[in-house]
Amino acid sequence: MVKWWKGSTFYEIYMPSFKDSNGDGIGDFSGIISKLDYLKGLGVGGIWLTPFYPSPKVDNGYDISNYYAIDSDYGKMEDFELFIREAHKRDLRVIADLVLNHTSSEHPWFQQSKSSKDNPKRDWYIWRDKPNNWESFFGGTAWEYDKTTNQYYYHAFAKEQVDLNWANPEVKCAMFDVMKFWLEKGVDGFRLDVINFLKVNDLFSDNPYENGEQTHLFDKDQEGILSVISEIADFVHQYPDKFLVGEVGSEDLEILKQYSGLRMLDVVFNFNIGSIGEFDAKTLFQQLTATEDAYNKEQVPTLFFSSHDMSRHISRFGGDKGRAKLIATLMLMAKGVPFLYFGDEIGMRDWITDDISKMKDVQGIMGYQLALQAGKSHEEALLSANEKSRDKSRTPMQWNAQANVGFTDGKPWITIPKNANQVTVEEQLDNPASMLSFYKSLLKLRKKHVALQVGNYKLLRFKDGMIYFVRTNQAEKIVVALNFSEQAVSLKVEEGMKLLLSTKRTSFEGKNVLTVLANEAIILKGDISNDLIKEG
Ligand code: GLC
Ligand code: CA
Question: Which CATH class is domain 108-161?
């Protein structure tokens, strides 16, 4: 039996921005419930919810102050339970984002921990007399002085996100209880936040610098991390059919590949593919091949190009809709489990602010403050804040032309000016030429053809700016060619192949030469007994 998640496409919902139901400008569970039919119609199989637990939202929910409840902005526990039931009714699975690495500084555990050196929870966090040189991933030092006990605590992210001490077995037990609670509530698995950060070097050695930038050598991927992860995986997999995807921030495939597979996480995000900054088809191809080479037969890659932590790919890669369609085709047709970020299916774009007071993201705000401290002007600091800020991809889902307010504290966060780039679900829904319809066609194909869900690469090649591959299983062979270049590129193929989808044509004559047009994405189905593409 093929595991359900291998055939599934996940849809990431950024909680505050997806669908508001009560007019306070903040997305909520009732809102999501009202859009489940939309998601079903789109053709995704799973939903990834960003954190929905009570939180002061310094880092919008990635600072949890209670692991056993629902943040009142998003609804009540009953709303969550109803949401799970309604999703399951439609055969949509749900995975919850879980932050095991740190808690909010307002979490009672930390409040107890900081109260005195001999508090039983003292050792649940990482306390030291003196800081070392470790830097926070949001910038600045990773140590915060606490005057109550005259010591420093460690925070890999904001100072309000305090790192738990996973060397303490009680922390592990507490977190296993949390996982048990949500699994029994019916979630189908977890997206594990910064999961390779759980262990830090116990000698607290200083991190080295390279070209003026700190290399995070001793604060992630430390000894003992893999055995903790395999304990987590064993624990969760006791429950049948549960899925684990890990956020493993590592550029090194040799490290990354250790985190998934047998008795480990089911899959991990690969940022080498997902977050390439500037578009370059060759780099993309090289990363796909490198992943293929590094992974063993049991390991499955992931495919994504946008998230709540990065610029949307349509904006990042130059704003061209044709290219966005090529990327969508790659994401949904290549080998791996796709994670589609809400709004990408209608071609939503990044938002950049010229008003620092409107910035919500802690990383952007930190960027602004640090730049000012370094002597930069307001304009320069704003520029660097916008570069770092993740608000750009967090704007509300554009259901219709009015749906352009949202985000925390109940006040309208931004108003996106109506311009040529403003796209809406409403105007795309019944338009066969729309981005939305294109995504639907791709997802339908993926659902129909097992080779596109679990098939291996028969071939994965690059030619003159074009990435092409053949995916096969016992029953099918499917050719996907993505011409990212401005010139037509020809391939010798077997005769008689059938057109499944193209962004540029409605028929293919089935001859033995396939000329892929400039910027065309084309998908063909061939005879299983044939070779399909003749190399050379
Ligand atoms: C992950 C989340 C990101 C958050 C960070 C700290 O990278 O995706 O949004 O800021 O963890 O929890
Ligand atoms: Ca609301």
Answer: alpha beta
